[in-house]
Amino acid sequence: MKKNKPELLAPAGDLERLKIAILYGANAVYVGGPSLGLRANAINFTFEELKEGCQFAHIHNARVHVTVNIALHNKEIIEVKDYLLKLEELGVDAIIVSDPAIIALAREYTNLEIHLSTQQSTLNAMACKYWKGEGVKRIVLGREASKEDIQNIIDTVDIDVECFIHGAMCASYSGRCVLSNFLTARDSNRGGCSQICRWDFDLYGDHGILKGEKDFTFCTKDLSMLSVLPMMIDMGITSFKIEGRMRSVYYVATIVDIYRRAIDAYFDNPISYTYNEQYERILNQCANRETAVQFFLKDADVSTQYYNGREEVSNQDFLGIVLAYDENTHMATVEQRNYFKIGDSVQVFGPNTDSFSFVIGQIYDEEAKPLDVARHPKQIVSFQIDMHVYPYDMIRVQR
Q1: Shortest CA distance to 363 belongs to which of 394, 319, 393?
Q2: Mean pLDDT of 115-141
């Protein structure tokens, strides 16, 4: 029996990234509202932006999920009811929740769809049955769930299952870290994580500090499930979730684009599907940490973490985003995002564009004056591209 196509769920740190994620193929996005979410350092959405985002999503047959996954204190309970009613009024499709108090209030006062956050570290069928009984429609499983765990839940509990397929990993159980609070007084369970797990440490043994070539870390590699995507589709997982509300517009577009293409390719013709190594290279170039399948096929081991430091080189692949294209002159108007010059080999990709490469010719500024280099952040420039491109297409370094 052919499985239902899984939802592709993308992060959206602001309105621009919401639109980009949906245009590049996301069926749904998850965002942070003005309060009660777990990304205190993110820009997050105002109510006005949420309204516009919901309208844009619904026009494109997509959904908006809002994180309301903070661990509540008594003083905050009073504001939850009105906040949830406002989200419902704005057209939000679902809320992502970890605190049982919010679940109870959402059920009593709204018709919002309730998704259980990964902050609850749900990993077994009995827990899923419990949360279903509490009114939860979907479980966002902990990143530590194995293939066998996930399949058992799908086979024994009639509940939607959402699994992470790409992005950063916690060094502790998802949602259970207290290191940030302990060392910096920034509570990771209330949106203030300072990413202690990515710090360098002195390592002590029986006779004092152990010195190696590099400082000790226990930072995890990122998650990438591209290689096991067919297996996950066949399991019947409801939603594939990409981590990264703090990530750039280029990151969101690239990751969504690759997983959209891979999911569609396998779903349309599973018998002849072959793993696309070029997709893997693009994903690896987009981020600055190595990736692993993590817990899906086996317990995490030395191959899934960094113990002796790492190098994170800032990614400069994203060169610009197309604003307009003149079919008569073949001139593209582009908003620059990183340095590029005449003669550079670059690549275009987009939701309506199969990626292609070309060499940048003469560049012009907004006053049609010729330039050798586009060097100013978000400078508006134009140059010729013989193949048709569209607004929101992106230009990156050709590797």
Answers
A1: 319
A2: 96
Spatial distance between the Cα atoms of 202 and 212, rounded to a whole number of angstroms: 10
CA–CA gap between residue 26 and residue 63 (Å, rounded): 9
- Read out DSSP for 232-278? HHHHT-SEEEE--TTS-HHHHHHHHHHHHHHHHHHHH-TTT----HH
Inter-residue contact 291 to 45 (CB < 8 Å)? no
Using DSSP's 3-state secondary structure scheme, residue 188 falls into: helix
Q: What's the gap between Cα 334 and its chain centre?
A: 25
Whether residue 29 is predicted with pLDDT greater than 50 in this model: the reply is yes
The amino acid occupying position 61 is N
Outline where the chain has alpha helix (H).
15-23, 47-59, 74-90, 100-109, 125-133, 147-156, 179-184, 229-235, 249-268, 277-286
- The tokens of 319 are what? 């060169």
CA-CA distance, 77 to 386, in Å (whole number)? 58
Dihedral of CA atoms 104, 109, 114, 120 in degrees, nearest 10, equals: -30
Phi and psi at 163, nearest 5°, equal -130, 140
Q: For 50-106, what is each residue's pLDDT tens digit?
A: 999 999 999 999 999 999 988 888 988 888 999 999 999 999 999 999 999 999 999
Q: Which two tokens stand for residue 202?
A: 């002195």
- Return the beta strands (E) in 304-367 as ranges: 318-326, 331-336, 340-341, 345-350, 353-359, 363-364
Six-digit token string for 35: 């309060």
Sign, CA dihedral 357-15-222-193, equals positive
Q: What is the DSSP letter of 398?
A: -
In the prediction, which pLDDT does 39 show?
Answer: 52
Give the C-alpha separation, 137 to 199, whole Å.
37
Q: In the 8-state DSSP scheme, what is residue 220?
A: B
Q: How far is it, in rounded angstroms, from Cα 250 to Cα 312?
A: 17
- Among the listed residues 64, 68, 56, the one whose alpha carbon sits nearest the alpha carbon of residue 27: 64
Partners of residue 209 on adjacent β-strands: 204
Closest among 23, 62, 95, 87 to 257, alpha carbons compared: 23
Q: Is the pLDDT of residue 1 over 50?
A: no
Residues 6+ away with beta carbon under 8 Å from 272: none
Helices (H) and strands (E) in the chain, counts: 10, 22
Quick check: 115 and 159 in contact, CB under 8 A?
no
